[in-house]
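[Q] Does anyone have a clean structure-token version of this?
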Amino acid sequence: MSDDMGTFRVEIEIENPARPGERRTLTSVLVDTGAELSWVPGDVLESLGIDRYKTWRFRQADGTILERWIGGAIIHVAGNRTNDDVVFGEPGDLVLLGARTLEGLNFRIEPVTKRLVDAGPILAAAAF
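[A] Here you go.
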């Protein structure tokens, strides 16, 4: 995908919740609101000691189905952090920052400037 078609890339850091302080930096990660989960190279997650705990099935844009392992990680982006499930990417898979991670970070996409920006106050139930 070309960056001139409304997509953009960011730098992220991945951390194992069980081993705080040790992080891996990933550059040029594609921001993809069409992907539910974030996809990270499996070897990066393994180097941090992140455990695989479940397999999920994913449907690609061309209709094919992939099966991949997921595990829990802390994702750091632009000064914010969140805990989320991440996909153990295999060779040839894209490295993606997905919609669920963006929501956890409380970011929204500013399409004109191709940046992540604060999404503002989070909705909460009102007490009556």
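[Q] Thanks! Anything notable?
[A] The mean pLDDT is 91.
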